[in-house]
């Protein structure tokens, strides 16, 4: 059965203890037996949860019924004999490698992998376990083959590299690994359902279930999928890394994930559909975009051959803005002006998540390692979400990209949302690159904008009074030099905006309750300094848990 959804649907169904449609959550940490001779049989390996006769459990760190049920579903998902759910993705990766390798063994690893994996391979294994590791360009099959030695036990890669979305040719890599008597271990976190690595020769498949499988960024979990023999190695009483290091999954977490697996296909399809549309639009605008669903991707053909039909090319896009300044400006404008997504690490969430890879999830890599992995300082990894309409998100992405490219990443203003707190202090909420009040107002308001002019202390109070008359609850707060004139803002309320200096700026700050502040980028004007003194250089908003540091 080639379709992973069909395999999961055909797996043994587990009902609740009293006939519930969902499996019961077994929270016990220890399990009783009815015959005193059973315990010695369990410790001798004669009895256990998968034994056909006398199936039984012993202790929650080794086997739990709820976690075991999840494991069977994961094995169906990845078309492997067995699977074991653990407490995190890194627990899955480290357990899989340590189950196969001993001190003195050797690993060949892709040179572009998740930063945590890279640190584990480059530093932890050699220093803590006596296992040597060589990194290679995983697309250079000759280099991969040349890296093998008689001590190589593992060839490690990701289906799509994190964050550069390089495609691993799994059949070719499996052939190389197996010809040397080694195991191919594949991280499939980016492409659940879309690719089944075991079909292409992978011996072990690992997941960070924190990502797409969970889908809500509220669970930390991992999975190791492979043969029954691998599972025995993982759970060996004397040498098993899961048995002895104890990365145990809580049964409550296992139950949560069991409830999310049935709608994983729908989520994966929608993530992929939107990512494809965004990638095509951005490429058409001249952006340097990386997405395996684009024919221009250098490994598009390889990836297409490995795909399971119907699930798309994945929900991750890479966007190289050239410089960190442009990348940061794009992300800030998308999040803080448009609500397009969130500046955060991780992926697979309902909302779009954006991060500057070189400074975040790949920060464990040295500058040379980043260069070798082709991770530029301006590279934005975007996990495309499913909220809002696709047309809405495309329009927001188009506007933000166009703005940042046009202003070369350095707009003359920053718009800052501020709010007065109960203690009277002004609190900065968030900011974004802006062309000033007129640019951030709606197009319909431009007829009201009038000619731009410098605000002065003499007219600041009058403009503030007009703003108060227009909307007593929400007024503009402006620091530094900028534009003056009424414009449409927020939900369509026409309010006054003013840029003032010195005492006038302080007067405005003293009266306003909320609004938007526009300041020049160098943060040196009197008004901006007054705002900084009022709000503080780091401004946590207690009611929302938000902070921003300049």
Description:
By secondary structure, the protein is α/β, with parallel strands linked by helices. Among the domains are: 265-406, Aspartate Aminotransferase, domain 1; 413-535, no CATH class. It has 20 helices and 17 strands. The chain has helices at residues 4-10, 38-43, 65-78, 89-100, 115-129, 141-147, 170-179, 228-234, 241-245, 251-260, 264-284, 300-306, 324-338, 367-372, 390-406, 437-440, 446-449, 457-470, 502-511, 526-535; strands at residues 82-86, 106-110, 132-136, 152-158, 183-187, 204-208, 222-226, 288-290, 316-320, 341-343, 352-356, 379-383, 413-420, 426-434, 487-489, 493-495, 514-520. The strands form four sheets. The chain has a seven-stranded mixed beta sheet with strand order 1-7-6-5-4-2-3, with helices on both faces. A five-stranded mixed beta sheet has the order 8-9-12-11-10, with helices on one face. The protein is globular and about 80 Å long.
Provide tags for this entry.
550 residues; single chain; Aspartate Aminotransferase, domain 1; 5-stranded mixed sheet
Write the layout of secondary structure elements.
Blueprint lengths: L3 H7 L27 H6 L21 H14 L3 E5 L2 H12 L5 E5 L4 H15 L2 E5 L4 H7 L4 E7 L11 H10 L3 E5 L16 E5 L13 E5 L1 H7 L6 H5 L5 H10 L3 H21 L3 E3 L9 H7 L9 E5 L3 H15 L2 E3 L8 E5 L10 H6 L6 E5 L6 H17 L6 E8 L5 E9 L2 H4 L5 H4 L7 H14 L16 E3 L3 E3 L6 H10 L2 E7 L5 H10 L15
Parallel strand pairs: 2-3, 2-4, 4-5, 5-6, 10-11
Antiparallel strand pairs: 1-7, 6-7, 8-9, 9-12, 11-12, 13-14, 13-17, 15-16
């Amino acid at each position: 059965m080639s379709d992973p959804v069909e395999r999961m649907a055909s797996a043994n169904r587990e009902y609740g203890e009293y006939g519930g449609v969902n499996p019961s959550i077994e929270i016990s940490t220890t399990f009783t037996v009815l015959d005193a001779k059973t315990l010695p049989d369990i410790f001798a390996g004669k009895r256990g949860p998968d034994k056909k006769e006398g199936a039984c459990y012993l202790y929650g760190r080794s086997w739990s019924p709820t976690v075991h049920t999840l494991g069977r579903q994961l094995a169906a998902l990845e078309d492997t004999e067995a699977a074991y759910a653990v407490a995190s993705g890194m627990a899955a990766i480290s357990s899989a490698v340590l189950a196969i390798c001993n001190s003195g063994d050797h690993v060949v690893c892709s040179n572009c992998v998740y930063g945590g994996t890279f640190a584990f391979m480059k530093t932890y294994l050699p220093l803590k376990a006596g296992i040597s590791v060589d990194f290679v360009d995983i697309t250079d099959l000759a280099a991969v083959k040349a890296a093998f030695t008689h001590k190589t036990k593992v060839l490690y890669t990701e289906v799509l590299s994190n964050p550069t979305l390089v495609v691993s040719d799994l059949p070719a890599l499996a052939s190389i690994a197996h010809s040397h008597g080694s195991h191919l271990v594949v991280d499939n976190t980016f492409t659940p359902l879309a690719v089944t690595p075991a079909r292409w020769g992978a011996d072990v498949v690992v997941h960070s279930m924190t990502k797409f499988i969970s889908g809500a960024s509220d669970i930390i979990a991992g999975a190791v999928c492979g043969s029954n023999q691998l599972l025995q190695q993982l759970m060996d009483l004397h040498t098993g890394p899961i048995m002895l290091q104890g990365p145990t999954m809580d049964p409550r977490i296992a139950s949560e994930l069991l409830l999310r697996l049935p709608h994983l296909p729908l989520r994966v399809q929608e993530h992929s559909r939107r990512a494809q549309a965004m990638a095509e639009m951005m490429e058409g605008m001249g952006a340097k975009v990386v997405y395996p669903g684009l024919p221009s991707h250098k490994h598009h053909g390889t990836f297409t051959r490995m795909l399971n039909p119907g699930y798309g090319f994945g929900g991750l896009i890479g966007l190289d803005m050239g410089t960190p300044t442009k990348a940061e400006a794009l992300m800030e404008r998308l999040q803080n002006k448009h609500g397009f997504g969130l500046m955060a690490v991780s992926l697979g969430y309902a909302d779009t998540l954006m991060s500057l890879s070189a400074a975040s999830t790949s920060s464990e890599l040295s500058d040379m390692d980043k260069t070798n992995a082709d991770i530029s300082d301006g590279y934005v990894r975007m996990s495309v979400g499913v909220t809002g309409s696709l047309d809405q998100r495309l329009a927001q992405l188009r506007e933000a990209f166009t703005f940042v490219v046009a202003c070369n990443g350095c707009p003359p203003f920053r718009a800052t949302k501020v709010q007065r707190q109960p203690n009277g202090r002004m609190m900065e909420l968030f900011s974004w690159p802006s062309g000033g009040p007129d640019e951030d107002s709606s197009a319909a308001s431009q007829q009201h904008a009038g000619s731009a002019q410098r605000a002065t202390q003499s007219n600041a109070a009058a403009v503030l009074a007009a703003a108060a008359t227009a909307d007593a609850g929400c007024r503009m707060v402006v620091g530094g030099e900028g534009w003056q004139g009424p414009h449409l803002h927020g939900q369509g309320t026409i309010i006054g905006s003013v840029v003032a200096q010195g005492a006038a700026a302080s007067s405005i700050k003293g009266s306003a309750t909320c609004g938007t502040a526009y300041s020049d980028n160098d943060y040196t004007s009197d008004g901006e300094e007054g705002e900084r003194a009022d709000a503080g250089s780091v401004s946590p908003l207690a009611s929302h848990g938000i902070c921003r540091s300049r």
